[in-house]
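Z., the sequence and structure:
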Amino acid sequence: MSARFGGVRSRALLAALLLFPAAARAEFTLRSEVDARKVSVQDQLQLTLTVEGSGAPDEIPLPALANLDAVAGPFQSTQVSIVNGRMSQSRSLTYVLQPRAAGKAEVGAVHAGGQSAPAIAIEVVGGQARPREPQRQDPFGRDPFGDPLEEFFGRRRGRAEAPRLLLEAQPSRTRLRVGEPLVLTYWLYTQTSVADLQFKEAPQFAGFWVEDLERPQAPPSGEPATVEGQSYRRFPVLKKLLFPTKAGTLTIPASVFRIGLARTGFFDSGGSVERTTRPISVSVEPLPDAPGFSGAVGRFRATASLDREAVPLGEAVTLRFRVEGTGNLKWIDRGPEVALAGAKVFPPQSKSDLRTTPDGIAGSRTWEFVVVPETSGVVEIRPLAFSYFDPAAGRIVTTETAPLTLRVEGGTVAAGFVGAKAASAVARATGALPLRSDLGRPAAGVLSSRALVAFAVLALLLHAGLWGAARLRGGASGASGRTASARSVRAALRDLERSGSEAMSKEQAASLVEKALDEAFGAIPDADESERARVVRALLDDVRFVRYAPQLGDYSDKLRDLAARAAEAVRRWA
């Protein structure tokens, strides 16, 4: 549920949440009853369909009627009973039936929610089957025949006295620190049956962060209580967890509840009453200040771990920083600052496993950092500190993680990458790398001196032509950097199209995008501050983040976006 208290719930929903939590499976009974099995044609009878227990269906169909007509109804009533300190609820639909003619009549079987009630046989006779009460003479001039509806049902309208109902808001404490939790319990004191309970207006807890406590699966148990000499049964109807967000004197406002009363008779509408809780003042003390303290209050423990202790150069590892305990854990929204010499650290992703308890929010929060070593050797990860205020100790406590060591195996990234490119270029040009034994092998044939002179002149001409072309190209491109060949551009665009369309892992797709950018632009000098250089560097940073990030979700859309941005840059500048 939302941390902030939402709008006013509907009557049925809030009643179900506060008083009658649903059981794990449907457990209810279905009854069909009539108030007489022998009536005359002139009489009427009352049919009552009742469901009692949890999981009852919302609709109960009127059964088939033989030689009977429903002339009134259905009239619905909800009844709450308290037996041995436990609440139970029943719902009834009442119909008034009129016989058609003398003879046999029947109320058919009732089926609802997988439960059934048997059919009921009725005998209809001529004349009058039910005795009427003697007529009453009223000395005060009222109708001597009385109210026929009251005569039929034997009940009076109205209530003898106002129902005794109280509502109380009770905090677990009224003096605490910023960020400490208090439990606010709403108690219902009653001497009568309650059909439903709801806030008239949603209370606004200014100055508090609010969480709803988990409700028990079983219905709430009542307990005896005495208020001003009157005996009641009291029930906890709602509990909230409040965290003050500022120091000073805060007020938990009065709350107005509308309470629906259960019907006491057939024509009793039940009605409703309103009750208001008293406002409560809470004294909140500020938290002390200290470097590195971000407002965590409670009892916590911090740990750090690596998913691997050794990694080849160029591969990524995941550094996990975990905080677990009980307090205002949901407020801790930022992990520690992690900077490592010889490695690049990407921004973390956080995960939470939290639950609300009367002592606060319990569980853990974990930040996962992707670490990519940039040099071989040993990367030292110093202890990571976490500070929190301990209410029991009354001071700020700092806990540290154990130091970690990461072994990086292999040569430098740059040497390995350039060496691989050089070897690949030679292999493409000759088909195979030359062996050392082949370098000193004599030539198979001997050229004449005239041929040697011709070859020398041709080499000089080619060298001059290449030098002039390079000068012209350099003047045209200037600060724009290296100009890729048409073949490199086509190859880069093909790789980008594959990375955005073919099914492959995120590592494969990201590597393909990175390869395409290298084919098109090569190495970007650090001194190059042109727009082209800034765009390519940003693309490479995003690609490497996706490549080395832990698989915490679907990166397909991100990879397609990167491929499209890279293709646009290639077409524009390469």
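Residues 54 and 409 are 64 Å apart (CA to CA). The first strand starts at residue 27 and ends at 34.

Let me know what you think.
H.
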